[in-house]
Amino acid sequence: MASAIRVEQLSVGYVGRRVLHQVDTQIEANRITALCGPNGCGKSTLLRAMAGLIPADSGTVYLGDTPLSGLARREMAQRLALLAQFNEVPAGLSVYELVSFGRYAHTSWLGGLSGEDHDIVLDSLARVGLQDYAARELSALSGGERQRAWIAMALAQDCPVLLLDEPTTWLDIHHQIEVLEQLRSIQRERNITLVWVLHDLHQAASYSDHILLMRGGRILHTGDVESVMDPTHMKQVYEIDMLRLRHPQSGAPLMIPAHQSPLLDSPPR
């Protein structure tokens, strides 16, 4: 299987603190890969390094066969889109205007949006259920609605590689599932490479093809869902005993803490 992104001996640090330690990994093309692990393990840093937003202390990130350093910013924006975990809300900006920013890597420097660009913006809004919100000011939306607007902008960029840092942030469970299903459907339809950071292990197992488990700035386990979702791996990564069950409908592996709540030890009243 060809790789969409290849990371070789990548080390990254902030102000003298090492966050990633000689990471080696490959992201398979045209598949969905989840980055999972405890808080502070380096998931977001690795994602940002894959997008070329963080300089490496050492090592190389390749997009296809090309080092990121060999790509102009415009060319990179045509091939890779990133949705960050936290995004500032520009004052006075409408939802449509935000999503249209995703098209600028594909337009000429002097020209505006074409009819095709407008259609892609509207389709991206419809994909996340915001087609009736196009004229609204972004700052007037709820946190979950804003998150869906940012996702629409990433979709409008229409790249073969899409990186998403916790795309379900601010969303209730209904909209979490809706967005994950929409993104997986888009990935299948467009045959793109999708990499997302997810904290919910069940969601990662249900909607991803591959999982990378990280701890302490290193990748400890990587592979398909069945091989990675293992109690021994989870103990090593999360330092907690877990049980592996099966979802009664999908059959996807479920990892649940083995520890029983003290409340469950109390006799019913």
From TrEMBL:
PROSITE patterns: ABC_TRANSPORTER_1, ABC_TRANSPORTER_2. It holds the Pfam family ABC_tran. GO terms for biological process: iron ion transport. Residues 5-241 form the ABC transporter domain. Keywords: ATP-binding, Cell membrane, Ion transport, Iron, Iron transport, Membrane, Nucleotide-binding, Transport. It is found in: Cell membrane. It comes from the Bacteria. One of its GO terms (molecular function) is ATP hydrolysis activity. It is a peripheral membrane protein. Its main location: membrane. One of its GO terms (cellular component) is plasma membrane. The keyword Transferase does not apply. InterPro entries: AAA+_ATPase, ABC_transporter-like_ATP-bd, ABC_transporter-like_CS, P-loop_NTPase, Siderophore_ABC-ATPase. Belongs to the ABC transporter superfamily. This is Ferrichrome transport ATP-binding protein FhuC. It comes from Marinobacterium lacunae.
